[in-house]
Write a structure and sequence with these properties.
The protein is α/β, with parallel strands linked by helices and about 375 residues long. Helix content is about 45%, strand content about 20%. It has helices at about 25-30, 45-50, 50-60, 80-90, 105-120, 130-140, 175-190, 195-210, 215-235, 250-255, 265-280, 285-300, 310-320, 350-360; strands spanning about 1-5, 10-20, 35-45, 65-70, 100-105, 125-130, 145-150, 150-160, 165, 330-335, 340-345. It has a 7-stranded mixed β-sheet. Strands 7-8 form a two-stranded antiparallel ribbon. The protein is globular and about 60 Å long. The structure holds nicotinamide-adenine-dinucleotide. The site of nicotinamide-adenine-dinucleotide has 30 residues, from helix 2, helix 5, helix 6, strand 8 and helix 7.
């Protein structure tokens, strides 16, 4: 089992990464805290696919354990789910001495983390990510949140977990579409991490799609280390951490415009393509390099399908996105892998052209 330390300004914590390590959860919890009241929220698909493992956790001798199933989708990443979880905590007499555990993908982790950060002004919180996307990205760094109105992740908090446990065995039951979603965030790291990591991801794309254990493990570890380093430098996203939003301004707007029929990780891939086109429009990437950098996301093109979409509507949604400042949208763009620009403003027609060029490749 690997142990990767995240040293955020608000808290230091470990990420445990390994195959078959879920069974170590009770022992790890005991080494972190004396608290014996567990409130577990588990993704309903994970609970049915991995019931045996989860039942063993329930039989691990804790004083009080409550397990709830959560049906994961963007519509349920809502204030009413949060209210329901608060009620369950209160009705079952959980107090400040509670460990809240999220077992599931990014949606489960984001919403349960938000509940843990606000219930009784914050209780112990453990993330057990079970999707590739959550393993490489959402479970680390302490961003929690829910969708509100028509805006993704509008309400939320920065709340670091006490630890993260990634058992790669969970990934074996992921449908291919969810593996592709995880690849969306891995592609992001491929552009952020520099030419060498970009080449590693390009050369291992087919290994990653098949979740080939050794290569997948190494790449998950690299992504975690990259994210941990970024969070250490800028926990609250006042500067450097914004690079992790590469492709996300486009992606969030596309998700809303498509009424969430496209998954987040797939939308990130389309969003990265739009960012590459916008980088080219802004004179940051020359045409020859644009084609080279597009190869990676376009290798996944057949696995992502958008029925039809309204490009101007996507732009309008971006305008009202919380990351817009004073009506101006700020983009994360790049000149080459590892050379990233943040807070870039762009003319409307360039942005719309970038969306048109990007989205049209997937329709
Ligand atoms: N907090 C952050 O820093 C951060 C970063 C990136 C993304 N996110 C958020 O993460 C969310 C997307 O996360 P996601 O892609 O994991 O979605 P998800 O949580 O909905 O999981 C995707 C699907 O996989 C299923 N699933 C989960 N684990 C499984 C397993 N082991 N085997 C089989 N099926 C399994 C789920 O039931 C679900 O249907 C978005 O809401 C996004 O905004 C947050």
């Amino acid at each position: 089992m690997k142990k990767i330390e995240v040293k955020a300004s608000s808290k230091n914590y470990p990420v445990y990464l390994g195959s078959g390590i879920f069974k170590s959860l009770p022992k790890l919890m005991k080494s972190h805290t004396q608290i014996k009241n567990l409130f577990i929220v588990v993704d309903s698909n994970v609970n049915s696919l991995h019931r045996e493992k989860i039942e063993k956790l329930l039989a691990s001798g804790y004083k009080k354990i409550k397990l709830l199933e959560f049906t994961s989708n963007e519509k349920n990443k809502s204030i009413s789910t949060v209210q329901n979880l608060y009620s369950k905590l209160i009705n079952n007499k959980f107090g400040r001495d509670t460990i809240v555990i999220a077992i599931g993908g990014g949606i489960t982790g984001d919403i349960v983390g938000f509940v843990a950060s606000t219930f009784s002004r914050g209780v112990k919180f453990i993330q057990v990510p079970t999707t590739l996307l959550a393993a490489v990205d959402s479970s680390i760094g302490g961003k929690t949140g829910i969708n509100f109105g028509n805006t993704k992740n509008l309400i939320g908090s920065f709340y670091q977990p006490d630890f993260v446990l990634i058992d790669t065995d969970f990934l074996n039951t992921l449908p291919e579409a969810e593996v592709v979603c995880g690849l969306g965030e891995i592609l992001k790291y491929a552009y952020l991490g520099g030419e060498q990591f970009h080449s590693t991801v390009v050369n291992n794309l087919s290994n990653l799609i098949r979740l080939q254990p050794l290569q997948t493990f190494r790449i998950i570890e690299s992504c975690i280390r990259f994210k941990a380093g970024t969070v250490e430098a800028d926990e609250k996203e006042s500067g450097l951490r914004k690079i992790l939003n590469l492709g996300h301004t486009f992606a969030h707007a596309l998700e809303v415009e498509q009424n969430h029929s496209i998954k987040h990780g797939q939308a990130v891939i389309v969003g990265i393509v739009c960012s590459l086109f916008l980088s080219n429009e802004m004179g940051l990437i020359a045409e020859t390099y644009l084609d080279k950098y597009l190869e990676l996301p376009l290798a996944l093109r057949e696995k992502i399908r958008i029925d039809k979409c309204n490009v101007v509507e996507i732009y309008k949604i971006m305008l009202r996105d919380k990351k817009g400042r004073g009506g101006k949208i700020k983009f994360v763009l790049l000149t080459q892998p590892g050379k990233i620009l943040i807070d870039v403003e762009a003319d409307e027609e360039k942005v719309i052209r970038a969306i048109e060029n990007g989205v049209s490749l997937f329709v």
